[in-house]
TrEMBL record:
<protein>
    <submittedName>
        <fullName>Uncharacterized protein</fullName>
    </submittedName>
</protein>
Length: 154
């Protein structure tokens, strides 16, 4: 997982700020599969001895930005498949920013990435949507995973 995050962060730095959509597309078009994490591949996300995991301010800010992206998209009307692809790229930008700004370590970091792996895969799945219904369903799955972070992190 550390190798993947290094690759993602390094790749983001190489492309520079002007290519955010391109960088985000590279990350989001490559779902995180087959990585082994210290929390366990198939274990559900759990609290830290009954308490929410503590996250740093940069991560919190990036999660708020992702939530704002979802709120803005939800407020729009007459969504098309192209709109869902655009929000996929916007979410990918947010994920890229969160990954590159991450300075967390230890068990809280592992828990965050356990959650993030699923979120990244859910956002990546939006690319495969061929119908409006399928795009809507896949978006809802990603949105629900994003909302789940408030149950586990503070």
């Amino acid at each position: 997982m550390k190798r993947l995050l290094f690759t993602l962060a390094f790749g983001s730095l190489l492309t520079g700020c002007g290519d955010h959509h391109q960088t985000a597309q590279k990350i989001i078009d490559s779902p995180v599969i087959g990585t082994k994490e210290k929390m366990g591949e198939n274990q559900p996300l759990a609290l830290d001895y009954g308490q929410k995991w503590k996250i740093d301010q940069a991560t919190q800010n990036n999660l708020v930005n992702l939530q704002n992206t979802v709120r803005a998209f939800d407020a729009s009307e007459g969504k098309t498949i192209e709109d869902y692809q655009e929000v996929r790229l916007d979410l990918a930008d947010g994920i890229t920013k969160m990954v590159t700004e991450c300075r967390m370590t230890g068990p809280a970091h592992e828990a965050l990435h356990h959650w993030l792996k699923t979120f990244m895969n859910d956002v990546a799945a939006l690319k495969q949507a061929k119908t409006l219904t399928e795009a809507s369903d896949r978006y809802k799955t990603a949105k629900d995973q994003l909302a789940l972070h408030t149950s586990y992190f503070e």
